[in-house]
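User: Please predict the structure of the protein below. I'd like the answer in structure-token form so I can feed it into my own downstream comparison script.

Assistant: Understood. Taking the following sequence of 396 residues as input:
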Amino acid sequence: MAKIPMKTPLVEIDGDEMTRILWQWVKEILIAPYVDLKTEYYDLGLKNRDQTEDQVTVDAANAIRKYGVGVKCATITANAQRVDEYKLAQMWKSPNATLRAILDGTVFRAPIVVKGITPVVKSWIKPITIARHAYGDIYKCSEAVVGKGKAEIVFTAENGEVTRLPIHDYKGPGVVMGMHNTDESISSFARACFEFGLSTKQDVWFGAKDTISKQYDHHFKDIFADIYANEYEAKYKNAGIVYFYTLIDDIVARVMRSKGGFIWACKNYDGDVMSDMLASAYGSLSMMTSVLVAPDGATEYEASHGTVTQHYYRYLKGEDVTTNPIATLFAWTGGMKRRGVMDGNADLTAFAQRVEDATIATVESGVMTKDLIPLFAGEARAVNCRGFLGAIADKL
């Protein structure tokens, strides 16, 4: 059988630990036999980021802007323990944060729903899509451990005028943080959410803490409200959908009582936390799609979970591993579908959809990795990671 050709390369971004192994297995078993795969490769493994002083992350982001579509493996965000473990030159920042800052996109995450796995929240009969603002806030902050003294916000305007705002008078040791966002990025976030709502015919919910953060969070609320009123209100009315704003704590309460089937727009930190909560409640962190959509249309598909360190150490010992590869696989299929649409390559798009359908059918038939066994209503058989990928290949 002739392999499906590709016109334009995908930007392939490799990662760390067990997911790096999964990345190669997915290509070997489910892509290479069927597709004449064309990629531009970037190694964002922690060692290579250290050796390149993280320039490889910047290069990968610029490549996505050039080619329009990237697929990314899970990567390590260094902490003090990782600095010692990998003998790093410094504690490099999150590669995801760097990619998102350069692309200035919005991350959309949605559960992969299969028959036989019922969400923990019984009222959720439809998937909930998290739309996470992927710029600024705590992920682009400056912070320090401090002693006795005074902390202030100092802003110097373009004309040289200086504004000083008190933060805290420290009588003893503590910590301080400064973070930011921009009207341009917040506006891109709002439009991405509203456009996604229109394209999927889903309501958009947004919540922040404007009663406490009367400038920062209130500014998000105001920008969303202005863009909706001036650009989307009539479109939403015609589509039979709505935009809804309330406080973030009220949103959380409403989400827990909802039936699902809407887009939950979240600020950067809220989206980071709540997407993991939704993934776990719907079934598994490995059963979640994740795509970063930039204002210029560039997209980056990624696994929504970490690098599965414990499984990696077992793999290095030669032990059997049962890591769930579905999120990693769906990063590849998402990227191939998007590449196919952009290039007018219907065969590539159709193949990627067949892989997704075969994956879901494999789980629904009762063959799965062991993390899904306790969640599945029916007879099920646990297989290791390569066995699961092989079972998907059999259905193709």
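That's the full token string. The CA atoms of residues 255 and 264 lie 9 Å apart.
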